[in-house]
Amino acid sequence: QGVDGDASVHDRVLWALHVSGMDDLLKFLASAQAEQQWALHVLEIISLMFRDQNPEELAALGQGPAAAEHGEDTQELETLRQRELAEKRARALQRTSRHSRFGGSYVLQGLKAIGDRDVVFHKGLHNLKNYSHDLGKELRRVPRRRQVAP
């Protein structure tokens, strides 16, 4: 004895036809102009294939609970997409259109400049490790005759 969801003998025969590729052959015979003499036989086979089927169930087969869940998922994705676009627009409005190249000014305490004042550093903090007092100064060219021999 089988369970309620078990396939009947008819369903198993239809599955065997599908696996063997016989359904493709039937579709070819039904649609080919040169095979007109087999049209009534193919029509009878197809009518026997759909013998125990209810037309309403067949029509609703592709639109069952899976289609309802698909619709809900699509609706949820659309709301998330709309929310993301709204956040993106809000961020774009908050940003100014011009880029400020001002990286800030920092006072380096403990490092003296001219006089007794601390050094004011106008570059980004990532450039701080390369800082020297000669930063930005042009190197004086020493004449070749005054250059120190290496």
UniProtKB/TrEMBL annotation:
GO terms for molecular function: DNA binding. InterPro entries: Timeless, Timeless_N. Residues 6-107 form the Timeless N-terminal domain. It comes from the Eukaryota. Its main location: nucleus. GO terms for cellular component: replication fork protection complex. Keywords: Cell cycle, Nucleus. GO terms for biological process: DNA repair; DNA replication checkpoint signaling; replication fork arrest. Pfam families: TIMELESS. The keyword Nucleus applies. It is found in: Nucleus. PANTHER family: PROTEIN TIMELESS HOMOLOG, TIMEOUT/TIMELESS-2. This is TIM protein. It comes from Piaya cayana (Common squirrel cuckoo).
